[in-house]
Design a protein that fits this description.
Helix content: over 70%
Shape: globular
Oligomer: single chain
Structural class: mainly alpha
Distance between the termini: 62 Å
């Protein structure tokens, strides 16, 4: 039955429509396969893609799975929620804590509540200052102690920024009188092929998350899995590279790129979707941007004989400003690039901190749609503590 349906999709053109140029995501897995097949880049590509899958994607998937399963238990109305909605002072604290949650869900919630009149402008500043978006998952997966430290710093700076804004402005500052609330997304609008690709993403990570996490854990302790299992050299590296290409191939078939937002932000997910399906979609989105950053770093370093770390070090005092400016861009994609460059050593910690404070992740898109003036002012406001934090770390520690 399943074979017959797949054959029908191929014959009626649904399959080949995915290969049209407008599905630009396909360019990424195709490029990766070309790099794996080319003798000149094969060694670099195998090691880079393997590291991206075992050392990043596996940990990100594990972290996301825990997050999505646990988030199901924290969605009911309670005393804490009532305190958050009724106290101007605690609104800022709770908004900063919501922003500290990895991903953009908490920031989007506070943004929507501000437009609806339930929280003040100070809460918006607090949540946008504290949020790191999906870059938090990457930092937590790769350097958990650093990730927790950056998140904690974001909460502190978010609270201070929100309370200062509360002293300057009233709660209704920049609140639109009539909100342009976007219409709900029609999840049935996806083609049958895209829906099947989304399901396959979930199935892929459902079966691989445990063994992939084990391999990633062993690799973190510098255990040679090829030697322990008596496998030929580079076996586990080729498996990792292959798994990464397959995961991104499935990801590339789930959404058509039509705009800047569809490029740099996560796919929309129905509320009824399974936590593992959400995990797969978010993991593959993060992985796509991480792979691009890793490849840029490795290819330019080894093939072009250009050391990005030395190059960026020459920028010196400008690096925190670069982190802030990239943070002004809506969406999580550019912010994942900054974190990836920090993890590879190309960007200093001051740049990472400045970007973490200034970036608003995907939450900026609904803010622009519903309250564009408030979004613009909030973005400018959050850049101020970002500059202070980034340059403070630069002058005192770098």
């Amino acid at each position: 039955m399943q074979t017959a349906k797949l054959t029908q999709w191929v014959l009626n053109g649904s399959f080949f429509s995915q290969l049209e140029l407008r599905y630009k995501r396909m360019l990424l897995p195709c490029t990766l396969m070309a790099l794996l097949l080319a003798p000149t880049t094969q060694s670099i590509a195998v090691n880079t893609l393997s590291d991206a899958f075992w050392a990043v994607s596996s940990y990100v998937a594990f972290t996301l799975a825990l997050y999505h399963y646990l988030s199901q238990f924290f969605s009911q109305r309670n005393t804490v929620v009532d305190l958050y909605l009724n106290s101007r002072h605690f609104q800022v604290l709770f908004a900063a804590l919501l922003g500290a949650l990895p991903g953009c869900g908490g920031a989007i919630i506070v943004t929507t509540q501000f437009v609806g009149g339930r929280v003040g402008f100070g809460a918006i500043i607090a949540v946008l200052t504290a949020t790191m978006g999906d870059a938090a998952f990457l930092l937590l997966a790769s350097k958990p102690q650093v990730g927790l430290g950056v998140i904690a710093l974001g909460v502190v700076v978010g609270c201070l920024s929100g309370w200062v804004v509360n002293l300057i402005h009233h709660d209704d500052f920049m609140r639109p009188k009539t909100a342009n609330v976007a219409a709900p997304i029609d999840q049935d609008a996806n083609s049958a092929f895209e829906a099947r690709a989304i399901n396959l993403q979930g199935a892929f990570w459902k079966w691989l998350i445990v063994p992939a996490s084990i391999v990633a854990f062993l690799g973190s302790f510098q255990i040679d899995i090829n030697q322990r299992l008596a496998l030929p050299a580079q076996s586990i590296e080729w498996v990792g590279a292959g798994c990464l290409v397959v995961s991104l191939l499935l990801w590339s078939l789930t959404k058509e790129i039509k705009s800047y937002q569809s490029t740099v932000s996560e796919d929309c997910k129905p509320r009824i979707s399974h936590p593992m399906q959400r995990t797969a979609q978010d993991t593959n989105f993060v992985t796509a941007w991480v792979v691009m950053a890793f490849l840029v770093f490795d290819l330019t370093t080894q093939l072009a004989d250009l050391n990005l770390q030395v190059l960026f070090n020459d920028w010196g005092v400008w690096m925190p400003l670069v982190g802030v400016l990239i943070g002004l861009l809506p969406g999580c994609g550019p912010q994942i690039l900054v974190t990836s460059f920090y993890l590879t050593g190309a960007a200093p910690m001051s740049t990472q901190l400045a970007n973490a404070i200034s970036n608003d992740g995907d939450a900026l898109f609904p803010a622009i749609a519903m309250a564009p003036k408030a979004a613009l002012v909030a973005t400018v406001y959050t850049s101020v503590p970002a500059l202070i934090v980034g340059y403070s770390y630069f002058w005192f520690f770098e």
